Structures are given as structure tokens and as C-alpha cells.
Amino acid sequence: MDDRSPAPVHIREMTLADCPRVAEIRVRGWQNAYKGLMPQSYLDGLDVAAELPRRRAHFTQAGEGVVNLVAQWAGEVVGWSCHGPHREGERRTGDAELYAIYVAPDRIARGVGRALLRNSVARSAAAGHERMLLWVLRENASARRFYERAGFLADGAEEPFEIEGVEVPEVRYVRLLGGTGGP
């Protein structure tokens, strides 16, 4: 099969055995998506071996309602997303939040991210959440377009985020769940 042709993307819940691949996808995802948006020295310093224990800890200690999903393409894990309850400070709200979504750089723009997002949105709606929120780097135009095409809108909230002394602010996006549209 041509490596660029569409392939069925299978979404399933993540297992502990997926942590090494998810750590790799997250690190390579940051290095790819945030190039030019964050200090290159920070991105170059990201390390899969150092990320692996963090992924395992986050996975095994996930709180109630936190869902980790992986996307498989031809049997290989090529994407990961994580969503759960939205919090304002320490207080949970009735909303859901997309905490993370990353796709292996060689599988971007092939429907993997859309499939993960669609599944996270559907699961959040089925869990009774009325809205889903997420944070995205203000200058990450491609990610912002991705979310906008999926029915998310910037709501005007901004949050400071700093990496190695460089400010990389995030903006919040929101989408109403349970009805119209879809990624």
C-alpha cells in the first residue's frame, strides 16, 4: 500500500504497554509542532527516555474521568490524545478538556488527528459534558486551524506560558458538545 494513501485509523484506549511509543510521539510531536515557536535549545533537549517515566506515571495515576486514547494505523500506534474533566484551579467544572493530542510527524495530515479528536469529543459528550475546552499556543496557526475546522472557537481567554525565559502564550478554545458539527 502507498504510504501516503488513506488507511483505516483505529482508535482504542491506551494501555501501559503503549507508553514507550506515546512518549516518542509526544517528544517528536513537540519538536515538530513547536519548531520556531519555542526556544530550539529546549526542543532539542527533549528526550524520549526521560519522557517515558512521566508518561507511565501520568497513565497509571490518571484521575477519575481521564481517558488516554491511541490511534493505530496498520497496527502501529501513530497518535495519542488525552482528555478528561476541565479544572479551574483545583475545582472541577462540568466541562471536558482536551489535555493533549499528538500525531507522529510522518502521519500528520492523514486523518489521524481528526479521528482522535472526533473520538475524544464523542466520549466527552457521551459522559454528559456540555463543552470541551483546550489550550493551544497562540502562534501555532496550523493547530488553531485544525481546531477551528473541528468546531472549536477561541473564547478570548489567554494564559501565560514560559519556556526557558521565552513567553509562548496559550489561547483557550471551546466547543459545545452534543449536537452539531464534528471534526
Itemize the secondary structure elements and their pairings.
Blueprint: E1 9-13, H1 19-33, H2 40-45, H3 48-60, E2 67-73, E3 76-88, E4 91-103, H4 112-126, E5 131-137, H5 141-149, E6 153-159, E7 162-163, E8 166-167, E9 170-176
Parallel strand pairs: 4-5
Antiparallel strand pairs: 1-2, 2-3, 3-4, 5-9, 6-9, 7-8
Q: Give me the oligomer status.
A: single chain
β-sheet strand percentage: 25-35%
Q: How would you sum up the major sheet?
A: 7 strands, mixed
Strand order in space, largest sheet: 1-2-3-4-5-9-6
First-residue to last-residue Cα separation = 26 Å
Overall outline = globular
Quick take:
By secondary structure, this protein is an alpha+beta fold.
Explained architecture:
The chain is of the alpha+beta class. 32% of the residues lie in helices and 34% in strands. The strands form 2 sheets. Strands 1-2-3-4-5-9-6 form a 7-stranded mixed beta sheet. Strands 7-8 form a two-stranded antiparallel ribbon. A hairpin with a 2-residue loop joins strand 2 and strand 3. Helix 1 crosses helix 3. The longest helix is centred in the first third of the chain and has 15 residues, at 19-33.
Main attributes?
seven-stranded mixed β-sheet; alpha+beta; 183 residues; two-stranded antiparallel sheet; 5 helices; disordered C terminus
